[in-house]
Specification:
By secondary structure, this protein is mostly beta strands. Among the domains are: 91 residues, no CATH class; 54 residues; 82 residues, no CATH class; 84 residues, Immunoglobulin-like, CATH 2.60.40. The longest helix has 6 residues. InterPro entries: DUF4139 (IPR037291). Pfam families: DUF4139 (PF13598). This is DUF4139 domain-containing protein.
């Protein structure tokens, strides 16, 4: 069992038991999409027979103190000490106290009184009372002042206990994750690789931790003050772990991903871990156009099913799509989109950009009244300038409730009460014209 200790200072002041991460026997971190995580930790502690203070060190700088759960100890009072050591803060603690100036070349050490640190150092010679401004010599402080700590810590006042293990759970900010996906688009199938990108800005390194990820939008109440620390610029290092394996399961209306094995999440580090790697996924490619738009959108669509070599919950994230240039076998970027959290057995639909070689024209061709009815006629002209046949999907909005189709050149599908959809094939280097007319009973109709 790892040892903890206490010190007795002058005046019979009892310093607390100190529990650092060296006492840790188990560590688990569950990271959420929304910039927070839950830390679960077990540490060894010696039993004691009197009321004591426990100094629980090496916690996250962005800990939410109202989230702390402790098992194994009966806590009467909890404090969070975060007055961390900083140069100016440290110097201010020594104003009107004794400090020393050391000249290493001359091997001298002189005693001074620190007067001010606001606009440079101002010192008074303890022997001559001379005032020294911004000395060149090395400034030595006797010791770390009371009240300043190197790392944020929890201080607990606890009742007597014979336990040898304390179990602590808390929520912290500064940790987040999201998914990124890469598609290699082939002639008839695609390959899909998914990555998890973890970012640790909690101010703490989590060594040898069991890692879990929660996918889903968890509701949280945000206070006006969200952190004890201001956000500052940082340079994050990137670590790529390409042979990891996550085990996925449904968990309380969310999805839980558990990394097989353990990992270390260093402070100011981004870590990229493989989430999935699937091949030979069938897809559909078509073009989509709606009334009033200028160009047709390029759509890539595939089924998230086992039959299609997938069938996994896909956390939300950005999807980049590449396609091979047959002339030199190199991959070229052809577009990207975002997906929301997508359950299995659903369709993934990506919009990659706007088609260069497809020209779309639309216009209102007629509008007139006959008695209680009003008639509306439209025309779509789609020109396929590509050297291959295309599938074209056209959505047309109808801004009336009580309408009825009177005439149409093509079959259509009613998507909802106010949208119809035409799905047509257009041969290479040809064009198609869609014409339709619908009637609205104005005596009962309400415009949308």
């Amino acid at each position: 069992m790892a040892k903890v200790f206490k010190r007795i200072c002058k005046g019979e002041c009892i310093m607390p038991f100190k529990l650092s991460n060296k006492n840790t026997t188990a560590l688990a971190v569950t990271v959420y999409n929304e910039d927070f995580a839950v830390v679960k930790e077990k540490r060894n502690i010696e039993g004691y027979n009197e009321e004591e203070y426990v100094h629980y060190m090496d916690v996250s700088e962005k800990i939410e103190t109202d989230s702390v759960i402790v098992k194994g100890l009966t806590i009467q009072e909890l404090n969070f000490d975060y007055d961390l050591v900083e140069k100016k803060k440290l110097l201010k603690k020594y104003i009107d106290r004794t400090v020393y100036l050391v000249d290493r070349e001359k091997d001298t050490k002189q005693e001074y009184r620190l007067l001010s640190v606001d606009d440079g150092l101002v010192l008074e010679d303890s022997k001559t009372n001379e005032i020294i401004l911004d000395p060149k010599e090395e400034l030595i402080l006797p010791k770390l002042p009371d009240g300043l700590i190197v790392k944020p810590s929890l201080i607990w006042k606890v009742k007597p206990s014979k336990t040898d293990l304390v179990d602590v759970t808390y929520t912290t900010g500064g940790l987040k994750w999201h998914s990124n996906y890469v598609i290699n688009l082939k002639q008839h199938t695609l390959d899909l690789t998914g990555w998890v990108l973890l970012n640790n800005q909690s101010g703490t390194t989590f060594e040898n931790a069991q890692l879990k990820l929660i996918a889903g939008d968890v509701n949280r109440v945000h206070d006006s003050i969200t952190s004890l620390y201001e956000k500052v610029p940082y340079e994050a290092s990137m670590v790529v772990q390409s042979e990891a394996n996550f085990e996925e399961k449904s968990f309380n209306d969310y999805h839980l991903y558990t990394l097989q094995g353990k990992t270390t999440l260093k402070n100011h580090q981004e870590k990229q871990i493989t989430l999935l790697d699937k091949e030979n996924i069938s897809f559909k490619r078509y073009y989509e156009y709606s009334f009033g738009e200028e160009q047709a959108d390029i759509i890539l669509e595939f089924a998230n099913t086992k039959e299609n070599h997938l069938g996994l919950p896909l956390p939300k994230g950005k999807v980049k799509v590449y396609s091979e240039d047959a002339s030199d076998k190199s991959l070229e970027f052809i577009g990207e989109d975002r997906i929301e959290h997508t359950p299995k057995e659903e369709i993934v639909k990506l919009s990659l950009g706007q088609a260069f070689d497809i020209v779309c024209e639309t216009r209102s061709t007629d509008k007139y009244k006959e008695g209680k009815n009003e008639y509306f006629a439209y025309e779509y002209v789609i020109k396929n300038r590509k050297d291959e046949e295309i599938t074209m999907v056209i959505d047309h909005p109808i801004r009336h409730i009580h309408w009825q189709m009177v005439d149409t050149t093509h079959d259509y599908k009613k998507i909802n009460a106010n949208t119809i959809e035409f799905n047509i094939q257009i041969p290479a280097n040809q064009q198609a014209t869609i014409q339709f007319k619908y009637r609205v009973n104005k005596s009962i109709n309400v415009n949308l």
